[in-house]
Write a structure and sequence with these properties.
Helices cover 51% and strands 17% of the residues. The chain has 352 residues and is α+β, with helices and mostly antiparallel strands. It folds into three domains: 3-88, Winged helix-like DNA-binding domain superfamily/Winged helix DNA-binding domain (Arc Repressor Mutant, subunit A), CATH 1.10.10; 102-132 and 236-351, Beta-Lactamase (2-Layer Sandwich); 134-233, Enolase-like, domain 1. The chain has helices at 3-6, 12-28, 34-38, 47-59, 76-88, 90-122, 175-189, 199-209, 213-233, 254-266, 268-279, 331-351, and strands at residues 63-64, 73-74, 125-129, 138-147, 150-157, 161-168, 237-240, 289-292, 305-312, 318-325. Helix 2 packs across helix 4 (47-59), helix 2 crosses helix 7 and helix 8 (199-209) runs antiparallel to helix 9. A five-stranded antiparallel beta sheet has the order 7-3-10-9-8, with helices on both faces. A three-stranded antiparallel beta sheet has the order 4-5-6, with helices on both faces. The protein has a two-stranded antiparallel ribbon with strand order 1-2.
Length: 352
């Protein structure tokens, strides 16, 4: 029977409700009730209307009620509808995946450019860090087949920060197998912190998947996901203008200046400065903080002045921007530059 004939008894509203039930079940592993579906912003339907539609879908064999008073879960026929719909929309999802990857590349290029522009405009040394998550819990995982020997895992961490990871598998998986792994991964990993992802959890999941081939495939998927989650924690520090220090007025000790350049290149001190900035809660509404001389949280920067600010992505991840210069720094210009830049970044991120 052709797909059109199989699904001709489903109008758009039933298809939307069925898709929502399956997506919610894949995400939570719990039977889905009408109240849950009624809260979806795109439906605008009452719980009573949704219950009637769910009753029709159950009669048609797409969902089933595991026990009295419980919500519904998809049947094999329901999964088949979901898979066929997903495959039809595959090209759109691949475009979206490309947008996610492109956004990461754009963010890295943008932060590098910010460091260079700041150094050029202020004539001081500058640093910009990649955004760091405060909430490091796994929110959702979605596996999709890319080709015969590759999966792509989209891992959503914290407040909707997405990481993409390509995972090699020894054989192609069919759609039902991919759905099974999606359900298993989200059941075990959803809501747990990065620190809780360990070998013991992996062993439990392998037993659930079944010994043999599935366990081997799951291990590769698991390793790729763990790697991607830890990548989300990693911080990159972009710098520019380090040589400007040699032109600072009042820098008489060239040994000290050379030491600063070495530390600036090493970036360990800059990472410490970034950590301190994110911990600080300045009264200034623009999150500008100024360290002068001995106030500097880093020992090797106590001969200088440091002005820092934080920027924030819509997902909640935060990064640090810093300008390091002499104590005779043009504070008015530097503070204004940082405020303007922070506002500009906010506008850029809101448009993405």
């Amino acid at each position: 029977m052709a797909q059109e004939e199989i699904y001709e008894n489903l109008d758009d509203r039933k298809k939307t409700i069925l898709t929502a039930i399956i997506a919610n079940y894949l995400e939570t592993g719990e039977p889905v009730g009408s109240r849950t579906i009624s809260k979806l912003p795109d439906l605008s339907l009452s719980s009573a209307t949704i219950r009637n539609e769910m009753a029709d879908l159950e009669e048609l064999g797409y969902i089933v009620q595991p026990h009295t008073s419980a919500g519904r879960i998809p049947t094999d026929k329901g999964y088949r509808f979901y898979v066929d719909t997903m495959m039809k929309e595959k090209s759109d999802s691949e475009k979206q995946q490309g947008v996610l990857l492109q956004r990461v590349d754009k963010l890295e290029s943008l932060l590098m450019q910010v460091a260079k522009v700041l150094a050029y405009n202020t004539k001081y040394a500058t640093m910009v860090t990649s955004p760091q998550l405060e909430n490091k819990k796994v929110k959702f995982i979605q596996l999709s087949q890319v080709d015969q020997d590759q999966l792509v895992a989209v891992i959503v961490v914290g407040d909707n920060v997405a990481k993409n990871k390509l995972i090699h598998v020894d054989r192609p998986l069919n759609n039902e197998e991919v759905l099974k792994f999606n359900l298993l991964l989200n059941t075990f990993l959803q809501g747990i912190s990065v620190e809780q992802i360990n070998i013991e959890l992996m062993q439990t999941m392998k037993k659930q998947a079944g010994e043999g081939e599935y366990a081997d495939i799951l291990e590769k998927i698991f390793e790729g996901i763990v790697e991607a989650v830890h990548e989300a924690e990693e911080r990159t520090i972009y710098t520019s203008g380090a040589s400007n220090i040699l032109n600072y007025d009042g820098i008489a000790d060239m040994t000290q200046a050379t030491k600063f350049l070495e530390n600036f290149e090493d970036k360990t001190d800059l990472a410490e400065l970034a950590d301190e900035t994110l911990k600080t809660n300045p009264d200034d509404e623009n999150k500008i903080h100024i360290y002068i001389g001995d106030e500097a949280p880093v020992q090797n920067m106590k001969d200088y002045s440091i002005v820092t600010s934080t920027y924030e992505l819509p997902e909640g991840a935060k990064g640090t921007i810093g300008i390091i210069g002499p104590k005779r720094m043009d504070y008015k210009k530097v503070v204004k530059t940082l405020k303007d830049l922070t506002n500009e970044l906010d506008q850029i991120f809101k448009k993405q």
